[in-house]
What we know:
The protein is an alpha/beta fold. Helices cover 42% and strands 17% of the residues. An eight-stranded parallel beta sheet has the order 4-13-12-11-10-9-6-5. A three-stranded antiparallel beta sheet has the order 1-2-3. A two-stranded antiparallel sheet has the order 7-8.
Amino acid sequence: MKIKYSLLKKEKNTDARMGTIETNYGTFKTPMFMPVGTRATVKGLSPQELYDLNCGIILANTYHLWLRPGEDLISKAGGLHKFMNYNGPILTDSGGFQVFSLARPKDITDEGVNFKSHIDGTKLFLTPEKSIEIQNKLDSDIAMSFDECIPYPATYDYVKKSVERTLKWALRGKKVFNNERQSLFGIVQGGEYEDMRKYCALSLQKMDFDGYAIGGTSVGEDKETMYKMVQYSTKYLPTDKVRYLMGVGDPIDIIEGVIRGVDIFDCVLPTRLARHANAFTKYGKINLKNSKYKEDFTPLEEDCDCYACKNFTKAYIRHLVTLDEMLGARLLSIHNIRFLTRLTEDLRECIKNDNILEYKEEFVKNYYGSASYLDKKTTGQGD
């Protein structure tokens, strides 16, 4: 079946909205954070641990799975769900972000993108048709259109040409899309220019995708610019389809995205931070390698219900990470993902109670103190 989005409530003071996504694997509430399982695994975590963290949709990467182990092998295994034994919905990205990070500008043509494998330097060519063919074989629940990820900053003329290319690619991909169990999303590009975002969003709507994503953000711009990009996109998207902000996982960015009408988010940030001994807390990120935690026998967060916080102390986790024990990164990954899923649970309650702006004010005061966050650079894309 195609996914079905139902809008349950809109917050009275903002564009924030609460809804449900009906999938082949059950119905899930939004706003939602999706952990990233780049190579058909969320780094260090089992499917059961993801269920325990109250995860719904997770993301897998088309580019990486195309190279290893290959879409044909995964198809032979019965599709991505059976291959990785995840009994929940999966979204596959188009591979576009990874491809464009490897390609030179002159290698991007209207036909597709020439680039070299990051593994062995093999010459590769990815087209909208090939991206969709791979995703059809992976048999994810949601497939993404192949788009050109616009760098930041970019001139208006560059963005205009790029948007036209993204729209042509979206139509070409839609024409060859062939999996009745899958939904296909279009991706809104347009850089920091509202007229380009509007044009792209309205043009994609005419193609009638099953949902819509917002691309080209979290690529090094400041946060205020990113929030404008999001606003310029959501205001022109339909209310009866899912809105997905790609590659965003900083807690404040999720809050600001929800305020602007976004439903789902993904990012590698929680597991990447964990591998570098960092943990999210309501009072900001902490690094467990810091010596002040050597004799700290309290959990990462007192009110967190994750396995790490219920069973271990900062002192023990610090012991693990300073010795490069695998369990340290696993425990921090569990906590960081739960932090973001709890955040979206809190935001759903705020939407119910029409108090999301008050929640944001309290969150910023605790997380940043008196420091401003709007001038900070965005992070999130990449593996």
